[in-house]
Fold this protein.
Amino acid sequence: MESKYNPHEIEVKWQSYWREKGLFETPEVTVSSEGGKKFYCLEMFPYPSGKIHMGHVRNYVIGDVIARYKKSRGYKVLHPMGWDAFGLPAENAAIKHGVHPAKWTYENIQYMKSQLERLGLSYDWQREVTTCQPEYYRWNQWFFLKMFERGLAYRKASFVNWCPSCETVLANEQVIDGKCWRCDSTVVQKELEQWFLRITAYAEELLRDLDTLKGWPEKVIVMQKNWIGKSEGAEVRFRIDGTDEDIWIFTTRPDTLWGCTFVCLAPNHPLSERLVGDKGILEGLKSFYGDDVTKIGHFTGYYAINPVNNTKVPIYVANFVLMEYGTGAIMSVPAHDQRDFDFALKYGLPVLVVIVPEKDNVPAKLEKAYEGEGYLINSGEFSGLHSSIARERIIRFLEEKGFGRRRINYRLRDWGISRQRYWGTPIPVIYCERCGIVPVPEEDLPVVLPEDIKFTGKGGSPLKESQEFLNTTCPSCGSQARRETDTMDTFVDSSWYFLAYCINDKDSPIFQKGPIADFYSSIINKKDSLHYWMPVDQYIGGIEHAVLHLLYARFFTKVLRDLGIIDINEPFLNLLTQGMVCMETYKCPEHDWLFPQEVKDLKCVHCGRPVLKGRVEKMSKSKKNIVDPDEMIQRYGADTIRLFSLFAAPPEKDLEWSSSGVEGIYRFLNRLWNTVLTLSTELTQLSGEVTASIDSGHPLVRLTHRTIKRVTEDIEKEFHFNTAIAALMEFLNEIQDFNPQSDGDRSALRFAIETLLILLSPFAPHIAEELWARTGHRDSILKEPWPTWDEELAKEEEYELVIQINGRLRAKIRIPQGLSEEVIKEKALSEPKITEALRGKEIKNIVVARRRLVNIVTN
């Protein structure tokens, strides 16, 4: 092999070696396994869209460093990968290009897998799962049947979020600002028969257990708490004047009951059609339906009687009232709710103040609603009380009088899983005219997706067109029956895949083809593995999944616990939400915003005009600012791309792509290569006795121990990979400058270089392996334990810092080893002699050379 650093040659070589030796295979364990702690490291698996992007690279490299590091620390590591393979894009590709979703999906998987392998990621591919395989999704169906038995899966008519472009139902979590999360089309309301999973049965536990997740980012905890949305208050009964019917409203502010001046119903409230009588009006309201739209309403002509003061208030149907929250009806208090205030001004409704922030301070006119707490006025016997005290007393008053009852509500709604598309898990249900809804018997699972499907992209599920699939016999009575043609939301697939990795080993029957008579016993047979590996010790993925995926995965975990399959409450012990990969844009006076490929020498390539640096934006195909990982690996090698993605920013922060930064990392690896190879001949000639007798007081040995400590602590402390890599760069600088004069020096140097390679190995594994071999080692560097440091040897030593101004010596001071350049500058500038010498001068630049000399350049 040539002496020049050739990343492609060495990376392919070592990837083949790791694969042949099975170095990333998960160790065999049972519940009684001894000798070593376990560590389950998992990155969120990708949708096989065709090619990985830099966001994928960053996510997976972060996980790979953690997995490699833990393995070198003696942990038994599970580090798997698979494919979230069902989904709408495959079906859209079938419609657009005439290629079957299965073919499109498996071709993409094959290509993306080769990309991941080219990055040198330490995955145990023997545990790979692909969610569109019948061997996988039959478990979706089995879990569904078990939930159906327990009343956790049910069917009902409901208004649903409907994307007219994707022609399918969306869960509430999949509607972002009134638009489809996938295609950005405006979502409308549509009434359909749907299958639901009763996630609300676990609402309180899902909320309560968030407090146990100490290893999760606070922002994710807050997002989940807000989505579950627990609210305590009262349900109050308003009689409809002139009838014997009631409207039950829910309010979290019973202290404002006396300020109610109208009542609003949701357009799909059971009473709305009866009170309005005109379906056209209601349909018009439904088309502008939701909490974030322009507030419009229709007066029903009826009045409700407020039970606490017997006043009559008009009843409206309003588009901002959601049937899914509370009772689908609200009492409107415009003085103390801004939404009600705006509606009251629009429709000329009265505004009555019943809460004031200070006693005896009633505003002459409200400019906006006062939504805070304060003292009650105009509220009968409760006037004068503070609202925090009055709320509890008013709830007791409502219960004593029979006007209402204490109630806890949740914003969380049951999970609608029905999708009117093909490429998903068939819902295992049969409809019989005699027997009604009949679950598919377990022994008949899986219900397999047929392949004789025509994709037109028009209306409903294409499964309806497959007569062979649709028509069946009832398992209860033998009559002609039909199958359910809706498929499951793809988030069902990702709600338990982390369990699949634990049981999907080469000896497992769980994911093999062929019928399994007793599904429950077959999965219970693998319970030892589930018990050993779960929960996931470190989960890594984007913040965009904070509500969607993570909430569903937590729900599934609790359900499967109650089914006796697992014995944990939460699936993910620690969570890291990595930042996005971004790129700077440029502003051209002629062509507006440009991306880096459209700029050369700070000039627009289209018109030649000078450009200005602009905003930093997330990489995306639509914005034409994508950096292709394949192209980067081809140019620089995988180790360079890995190191840059880790060095450019801490994992939780956004990473700004920098071509110069990539070049800098590539130069560092070349420098490492040249340094080690230059010294390798001399070092390999050292005898074992000489190497073993390292002088612990040697300056290079002490520096090595300090570096071990810095790198280890940076990894352990919130995965500060960027500062760990910076420490390794500084360490290489010192090794380069070291000139060995004796066997003692050479022994210290060998110890330093070997330690450097081991510490670098999780970050840039290929070059570390190659240089390890070239310095005389026969076994893989992966088998080397992580080095430890001696606290006494790792203590920071002081050294003399020379301070110059415009090249002239002005001071010398003693400072500790290991300070950053910024701290060194601060210490130099704070030295009294330097402060005096700089008086009246303007500092143009400060240069820190090898952390030994500071030169301050002035005017």
